[in-house]
Amino acid sequence: MLGEGIIKGLAETARNFFGSYVRKERLTTVQYPEQRLPQIEATRNFPFLVFDGTDPDAGLRCVSCQICEKECPPKCIFIEKSKDKKPDAVGKPQFYPTVFNIDVSVCMSCQICVEVCPFEAIKMDVQYDYPTEDRFSALLFDKHELSKSNEYYHQIHPTEAAAVDAALAAEREAAAAKAATAAAAAAAKAAAATAVTSTQSNGATPAAAKPATPGAAADTSEAQPAGGEKR
Amino acid sequence: MIQTLDQVFVIAKHWLMGYVPSPLQPLTSAVLSIIPILIAFPLLFAITTWLERKGLGRIQNRLGPNRAGFNGLMQPIADAIKSLTKEDVVPLTADHIVHFLAPLLLVVAAFLAYSVLPVGRNMVLANLNSGVLFFFAVGSVVELAVFMAGWSSRSKYSLLGAMRAIAQMISYEVPLVLASVVVIMQAGSLSTVEIVEQQAQYTHGLPHWYIFTPWGILGFILFMIAATAESNRSPFDLPEGESEIIAGYYIEYSGFKFALFFLGEYLGMFATSGIAITLFLGGWSAPLAALTVVPSWIWFFAKLLALIFAFIWIRGTLPRLRMDQLMNFAWEFILPMALINMFVAGVWRFMAPGIVRWLVCAALVLAPCVVLAALLKRKKKLQLRTYSFAE
Amino acid sequence: MTLTFLIIAFLIVAGTAAAMGFRNPIHCVLALTVSFAGIAALYLELGAQFVGFTQIMVYVGAVAILAVFAIMMTHRPGDPETRIFSRNAFVGVFTAAAVFAVIGWAILKQPATSAATQPASVSVQQIGASLMHDYVLPLEIVGLLLTAALIGAVVIAMDRKEDNAK
């Protein structure tokens, strides 16, 4: 029919016009900044440093290995390593960064720093509005601004944070188990050494001692490869 | 009481004229008639810009402007302030005098066209015997203003835009005039007041509007298509297409002169809508005899608003026509249909009134429409594009 | 010699004088358009509404556009002109004076009729009736002429299909 397409088009736009008053899907405007679009979990914008516990200085996971600084493509991370060591969340003495600056006006959100960090210390934040009138110093985030707690990390990336926590817990367990086996092996070695010295001092038959020492030697030789594996 | 409300502006003017000494009376009478036009139609222009932006927004699944004042109602004021305070940039090699005069000529021509529109009962600025002819004469001055604007900027794009705009305006002026000739044939007069008064009669409560006749419907449709093209409005806005040649013939204008072009274009749209209302929709008369209690000028502006909504609706719906499609449409479809419409109006005039006349004329109108459309569609066989030089 | 006639006459004469004197052809055409509008005003003052509005519609709306298109297509502007008035203004003035003299002599040779007669107010209906009854043959011939011009323009502007088929 002549003009059929035009009539159908007019009907569609009329439906749009009147529907925009009653239906949500015919008026998809989000009135920024009063309303925000919901973000998906994998959103990323600029990095931040994770700390465990409540104290940002004590619980900071970053050990200042400077891998992220070297891998960052636009070189927007600036780290200064400390001279002394501080105990980290599990008590082991580690270096820590005295200065950790990220220039977010340079950062391109590529997430490479997150991918290469061996200590799960730097992760991507989701905040995108940092409006400021100062283009330079206000957009250089220092360690204090970058440190955010693990609880915050759980808030913004729940599944990722849960996976990171599980991995860290598994590592710590493994380390603890290894330490336990090493301690057990050392204790066994010490016990065998004292047993040898005691049998020698007692003047036991060399025949009795001989099976003991090879047994002790076998024990120590057994303990050593096992400890080597566990290392 | 109803009469007073209907004639309130006329009564006010007569009262004011009583205070004017008699040698100054003709001049004051003219001025007092002109001032309401100068106030009402630019105000309508401001309201239309707001309506258009909000309406187009809702059609396109978005809100229009809603930050400047409640629901964006202060947006026209914000636009006016912006256009007044912007720097007026004129190209160095431009022809300054012609560059300055072009928007003035456009606005003057657009305003002149309102002098023959009967806005209400006894409310016309100049009751000319050949009012319709005056309207089309003034409309043809707009093309000269467009050319002046495009040529004086001394820029390739503005000249190209001006040529295309003038070609489009000239092509659609012929169907515009021919579509209005049918009304003149029926009314027997070129005076707009006479045409409206002939339509303001009622039989069985229904008015004698010309749109309720077969040739009237076709004539109205053709007239509105040609009016859309005359005022360079979507879908015929290639001369000012923002994505093609930025702004076409007023690309080198900024600030208030640009606002004047905008104003002139919208005023032209209102004027052609007003003439369409006068010719086909019965001017200031009410749709039913029972509704004549509502003042006449309210009916005129209600019909004008309805046509403005139709313009905005069409703008939000149809894609832009390409230049050659535009010209083909004008010369191969609209013009023959306008001529056939004239023939049908003649048949209508010479047949006896009744249902037979209605059916015969309706058939005479529909048959060429369908046949012509089929013929034109068959000519353009849509097929796979072949390239003759790229082997 | 009323005031309105003087103003309109000044407008017409100034427009045509400028049209003779300007250097840029587009300026000349625009000045000529002013004088066309002045002539239309003269028609309206004499009460000939139909002729006046047709003058605007045809001359200002069509002939002027045609002239500017023709100039635009054929004229090479070169550098923007700095002079406004042309050097050969004298030739234009001389030609205009000669034509004026001839027409003035022709008018003055007529027997003097009583001036200031009321101009007969001719309505559009009368013009239409006389066109269709008394002058129908010239009307049809003019129509044929215009159709021939239209067909000629289309033929000239049409693509030559034989040339394109290679």
CATH architectural label of the largest domain in chain C: Up-down Bundle
Number of domains of chain B: 1
**Quaternary structure state of the chains depicted:** heterotrimer
**Separation of the first and last Cα atoms of chain C:** 69 Å
Strand content of chain B: under 5%
What low-confidence regions of chain B span 5 or more consecutive residues with pLDDT below 50?
A: none
Report the radius of gyration of chain B as a whole number of Å. Answer: 23 Å
CATH fold naming of the largest domain in chain C: Four Helix Bundle (Hemerythrin (Met), subunit A)
If strands are numbered along the chain, what order do they take across the biggest sheet of chain B?
Answer: 1-2
CATH class assignment of the largest domain in chain C: Mainly Alpha
Most extensive protein-chain contact, per-chain counts = B-C, 29 and 24 residues
Please tell me the overall pLDDT of chain B: 89
Q: Which shape of chain B, going by the Cα principal axes?
A: globular
User: Number of DSSP helices of chain C?
Assistant: 7
Topology of this protein?
The complex is a heterotrimer of chains A (231), B (391) and C (166).
Chain A: H1 4-22, E1 47-51, H2 56-59, H3 67-71, E2 77-81, E3 86-87, E4 93-94, E5 97-103, H4 112-116, E6 122-124, E7 140-141, H5 143-146, E8 147-149, H6 150-156, H7 158-202, H8 206-230
Parallel strand pairs in A: 1-8
Antiparallel strand pairs in A: 1-6, 2-5, 3-4, 5-7
Helix pairs in contact in A: 6-7, 7-8
Chain B: H1 2-6, H2 8-17, H3 25-59, H4 75-85, H5 96-112, H6 131-152, H7 156-187, H8 192-199, E1 202-203, E2 206-207, H9 214-230, H10 256-279, H11 296-317, H12 323-350, H13 355-379
Chain C: H1 3-21, H2 25-45, H3 49-74, H4 89-108, H5 124-133, H6 136-157, H7 161-164
Helix pairs in contact in C: 1-2, 2-3
